[in-house]
Amino acid sequence: MSNDKQPSGRQSDLARKVAEKSARKLKSRRNASQKAWFGLGMMGLVGWSVAVPTLIGVFVGIWIDSTGKSRYSWTFMLLVAGIIIGCLNAWHWLSKEEKDLRDEEEQDRMEQEESVEPEGKKVEKEKDVNKEETRHD
């Protein structure tokens, strides 16, 4: 008698999860130094995104306050405006980078699923896609 058994659904799910985690860990180890530089670059980007508009606001405010008399402090108002603009700018860049990272992770996950998927299912999917294409033509 042969002990060749097909893996049950639970075992194949476990094997798939182990393979996904293994692939993620290997990728993380390959890109470890890149992630550190990426983090430092992001801190710099956020810092400059807030600092530059704030300093521009302060300098313009000082110039306005020195050229004319006003009941209000333009320096303070433009300082606050610069901080708000800088924070919005930093938020924009961070959300863009987060979206790019999520897209990359999704693509990696899809590639991993394709590599783990049994060959028979790939052929069936290709046949289904070809049938759909011929129906629409």
**Silhouette:** rod-shaped
Rg measurement, Å: 28 Å
Number of DSSP helical runs:
4
Order of helices and strands: HHHH
What ranges have pLDDT less than 50 throughout 5 or more consecutive residues?
none
Largest sheet: none
Q: For the terminal residues, how far apart are their CA atoms?
A: 52 Å
What is the count of distinct domains?
A: 1
- Class from helix and strand fractions: mainly alpha
Number of strands: 0
Estimate the helix proportion, in percent: over 70%
The overall pLDDT, averaged over residues, is: 76
Strand content: under 5%
Account of the 3D structure:
There is one protein chain. The protein has 137 residues and is mainly α. It has one domain (29-136). It is 87% helix and 0% strand. It is built from 4 helices and no strands. It has helices at residues 9-30, 32-67, 74-116, 119-136. α1 packs across α3 and α2 packs antiparallel against α3. The two termini are 52 Å apart. The model has no long low-confidence stretch (mean pLDDT 76).
